[in-house]
Amino acid sequence: MLDAAALHLAKLRILDAGASRHALSSYGLLIQHCADGGLLRHGLQLHCRLVLLSVIPDNFLGSKLISLYSRSGRLHDARLIFDAIPVKNLFSWNAMLLAYSVNQQPASFLRLFSSIPPSLRPDAFTISALLKSISAAAKEIHSLALRLGYHSADRFISNGLITAYLRISDPNSARKVFDRMPTRDIVSWNSIITGLSQEGHYSACIQLYQELKMGRTV
């Protein structure tokens, strides 16, 4: 990590270099350094200089600026940068998707993910971020159901939550929903036993099956 003096010197050097290819590469590296170190003020100064130089962010610079703003919680600014990139590659898409993911904005994440053009094939990084956002979305839906007054007594909603949590490999949350249900039907039991089995929780499955055989379906 650069100390404050070294960072200031590096900024002065690239400011003198204008908008050459080498200078823009240095801008990107310094902006990423600012993002990693939480140095928003320095990053803003670099971005302002790019604006003064009439530089339109490409995928490299754009992704660094998105990282800078998203790590500071400034998602609106991050999205403005993303939208300004003329021709976006998967690197830029992933940067903006990650911004929504780490800031726990699953709805925005899913809207953006659904708009990825067919010409771009999501990679492992994209899918990993998607799974995290789906997990966050499931928890948001659960919280919404509780705020609307749908509690564990509603078997239809509880069964749906069990399925949702198990589909995103969150057996602990699924089991909590199941255990809080005052009444359960065969769908509840089948969902939790099948899901826990697929996750490798065999002892819990045997215990639940024994309870089911004892007639504790309701």
TrEMBL record:
PROSITE patterns: PPR (PS51375). PPR repeats lie at residues 185-218. Pfam families: PPR. Keywords: Repeat. This is Pentatricopeptide repeat-containing protein. It comes from Platanthera guangdongensis.
